[in-house]
Amino acid sequence: MIRKCLFPAAGYGTRFLPATKAMPKEMLPIVDKPLIQYGVEEAVSAGMKNICMVTGRGKRALADHFDTSYELEHQIKGSAKEAMLEEIRGLIDQCIFTYTRQIEMLGLGHAVLTGEALVGDEPFGVILADDLCINPGGDSVMQQMAKIYEEHNCCVVAIEEVPMEEIYKYGVIAGEKINDDLYRITDMVEKPSADEAPTNLAIIGRYILTPEIFDVIRNTPPGLGGEIQLTDALLHMAKEGKVLGYRFKGQRYDCGSLEGFVKATNAFYEMKT
Ligand code: G1P
User: Fold this and answer.
1) How far is CA 149 from CA 46, 88, 131, 156, 182, in A?
2) What is the CATH number of the domain that holds 88?
3) For a FRET experiment, which of 90, 118, 229, 243 has its CA 20 to 30 Å from that of 171?
4) Collapsing DSSP states into helix, strand and coil, what is residue 41?
């Protein structure tokens, strides 16, 4: 059973300025719940109750969200509004939250490496909260991935087919098909142009990583944009046959873009009413 889930949450969220000037992008709500809470709920659904967050300057609201707010709770005690805090209280009761700061923004690989102090020497999930994933009526995406890990005991990366004209936004994989939903990855490229992309199978922000990744990242030179890319580190492991690509069941909303954020808002509002 995987116990820990890492949330890289140090990014600036510049696409949402001015909303993210003084507020972490992970606190932006889809209807009435911040993105990070959806992510933590997904981790918990997969049995990952040790929540490890890599935050940064200006991100204190994340830790405050997963803490009691005595004044507020006192204020609404006995009113119907109390019910609105039930879910977040449930998470606070069940989970252990640990935090560390990424001092410099040197890329996703670097953010994951920063999380080593929280994760230690065990396999762990990774959720990028701005990829909001749902699978109504079925296992959550992280739950599906945990099952794949239990079967194969190696790194697992969530993948999805995307239109070729959008491939430049993603890490892209190529691999040998194990079955309809599973590939043994042989190649990975971070944000290639449509010409350079080996396939249209894009990496989505859900990973299960083995602790071997930390040493690999330490030895991974800066890649695209001068950043230490998780994709490059995973390619190193893929060459040893240690990374699977899993085509998950469910729907993903790219809440890191305005368009995806609005789509998710509309879809979640529909589901709620
Ligand atoms: C990151 C990864 C990329 C992946 C994407 C999924 O990029 O580097 O490989 O496809 O997340 O959302 P970012 O979107 O943080 O630039």
Assistant:
1) 12, 28, 20, 7, 12
2) 3.90.550.10
3) 118
4) helix
* Average per-residue pLDDT for the chain: 96
Q: How many domains does the chain have?
A: 1
- Please indicate whether residue 190, judged by its CB atom, sits closer than 6 Å to ligand 1: yes
Tell me how far apart the alpha carbons of residues 16 and 6 are, in angstroms, rounded to a whole number: 23
* 128 Cβ below 6 A of ligand 1: yes
Pocket test for ligand 1, best of 203, 206, 209 (most atoms within 8 A of CB): 203
From 170, 190, 230, 248, give the residue whose CB has the most ligand 1 atoms within 8 Å, as the site to mutate. Answer: 170
108 lines ligand 1 (CB under 6 A): yes
Q: What is the pLDDT of residues 19-65, one digit of tens each?
A: 999 999 999 999 999 999 999 999 999 999 999 999 999 899 999 99
Whether 112 contacts 208, CB under 8 Å: no
**What's the gap in Å between 231 CA and the centre of ligand 1?**
9
Q: Which two tokens stand for residue 257?
A: 């873009």
| Distance separating alpha carbons of residues 132 and 30, to the nearest angstrom | 9
User: Tens of pLDDT along 183-199?
Assistant: 999 999 999 999 999 99
- Residue tagged 């893929």 (tokens): 238
Domain around 121: 4-272
If one residue of 108, 162, 190, 235 were mutated to test the ligand 1 pocket, choosing by the most ligand atoms within 8 A of its CB, it would be: 108
User: Ligand 1 within 6 A of 13 CB?
Assistant: no
Taking the whole predicted model, whether its pTM rises above 0.90 is answered as yes
